[in-house]
Design brief:
Layout lengths: L1 H10 L2 H28 L4 H53 L3
């Protein structure tokens, strides 16, 4: 299964993958806020409150996992950008050295 995800990841740009994960994180954040609002405002039985807190814990874990993935992808994006700038500088240097009199 990891190989399938890697193959899918190769076809998607890092920037679009970051956008997708940020959207997923925003959805998780909304769900967490709704659950937190419900926990504060509604009168819940002990069982319902426990289930809601379990759900909030799961959502919080998902958000933390997405944050880690976003951090990794942003680092990869930064590295790709630096590589692109370095290639541009080398290309410009090559052009100025060999094609300008």
């Amino acid at each position: 299964m990891a190989k399938l995800q890697d193959k899918k990841r190769e076809k998607i740009s890092v920037a679009s993958e970051i956008d997708c994960l940020e959207e997923k994180r925003a959805n998780c954040q909304d769900n967490f806020e709704r659950a937190e609002f419900r926990r504060r405002r509604e009168k819940l039985s002990d069982k319902e409150r426990e289930e809601l807190e379990d759900e909030m814990a799961i959502i919080n874990e998902r958000m933390q996992k997405l944050d880690k993935e976003l951090e990794i992808l942003r680092g990869e994006n930064r590295r790709n950008m630096l590589l692109s700038v370095a290639l541009l500088v080398v290309s410009a240097l090559f052009y100025y050295l060999f094609f300008l009199p």
